[in-house]
Structure formats: structure tokens, C-alpha cells
Amino acid sequence: MRPARARRLSRTTAILVAVLFGSSLAMLQAQPARSHPPPIAVRVNGVLHHVPGPTTVAAVLRATGVRTERARLVSAVSHKVLRADNGPPTLLVDGLPAGMDSAVGADAAVVAVDGPVDVEPVAVRTVPVAFAGPGPGLPEVENTLWYPGLAGADEETVGAVSGEVVGRRRVREPVGPRRELAPVVALTFDDGPDPRWTPQVLQILREEGVKATFCVVGYVALRFPELV
Questions:
Q1: What is the number of alpha carbons within 13 Å of residue 213 lying toward its C-beta?
Q2: CA–CA separation, 224 vs 130, rounded Å?
Q3: How far apart are CA 214 and CA 212, in angstroms?
Q4: CA distance to 43, 53, 59, 107, 193, per residue, from 50 (Å)
Q5: In this prediction, what percent of the chain has a pLDDT beyond 70?
Q6: N or C: which end of the chain has fewer CB within 10 A?
Q7: d(Cα 86, Cα 69) in Å, to the nearest integer?
Q8: Can you tell me the distance from the alpha carbon of 108 to that of 80, in angstroms, rounded to the nearest whole number?
Q9: What pLDDT shows up at residue 1?
């Protein structure tokens, strides 16, 4: 009895498997096939490509292998890169400015070129120029007057970011020190300042248009800083 029953169960199991398999196959055949959108024609930098669409500029560039560099800022003289990310690349869709997320439809014309290479702005500064002539050399005790001379000046044009010198021109020649040869008197005032007498001396000098040298005492100068 047992072998016969086992054979009947095996036949029943096989029939159930066949029925289930057939039903699954029929269901799969009955399902509509997934449709993929047809590729669209797109021109990228004048070259015709066919890409899955509709799509975006970023997807088109990825699909066509076109790479773009962002704008760069370079120095004024050596053109050393100061900023590698100075702005986006130039992107156009059908002649209009676009971004990476801009939509691209069929028969669109995409232009993707590297961002511009911008040269840094320049600034103008004044640089002092010392007198380069031979120094006269002063004695241990000076008993004549000297004019100290006047520093010259150059006008430099430099890169505003890098500081590279673009150009330089002399705007004032330096004047060396010279000895006073005319018969003159040097006025010096010592032991001050004194709130009683120093203002009176200053007033006379101011009225006469005369300059003088004041030698002050340290602790007195600290006591009357406004007078100094």
C-alpha cells in the first residue's frame, strides 16, 4: 500500500509543479514588455551624437565623454594658477546659456567649452627709492648743518593677488644729503618742555616762520605730553 500511495503523491506533485510553471509562464507572456524611449539626436560642439532622451546637459556630456574645465584665475606675469575654480565652464543649449541641470531635447545643439582663463587685476603702489650716491661721512662732532636729502619714488604696477611686478617707472628722483654752505644759524632749545616758556618760544617761531630743534628731558616730556 505504501509504495502505491507514494507513487500517487509523486504524480500529483509533478502535476501541480507543471500547472504552476505553466501559469507563471503565461502570466509573464501576458505582461507587456517595458518600453525604453528611443535615443535622440544631439549635436555636442558640432558633432552629432545619439543619446537616451529626454536628458540633461550633464547626462549628455557623460554619455559623449566630453569634459570641461572650470574657469581659472592666473597671475599677471608668470600666469601661475591662483584659483583653479574661478567659475563654471561655458554651457549653451541652442545658443542660450545653460547649466549642468538644463534640459536637452531632440535635435538640440549643446556647446560645452572650458571656462575662461582670467588674468588677475592689477594695482598701483608707490615704492620709496633711497639715494644711491656715496655718503659724505660725518665727523665725531658735527658743527655744520646738513640737509638730509629726499627719498625718491617709483610707481609699481603689481598683480592685485600675486604681487608680481608688471611694470615700474620712476616718478621722483632721490636727492642726496648736502651740506649747508650759506651763513645760517641753527636754533636749539634745551631743558624742556616748560609750560610757562615753551609756548611763548613756539609762538615767536611760528610768527617768524623759523624752525628750531628742541631737546627735551624724559620725565618732563612725560609730564607734559600735550606740549611735546
A1: 6
A2: 36
A3: 7
A4: 9, 9, 12, 10, 92
A5: 82
A6: N
A7: 10
A8: 37
A9: 47
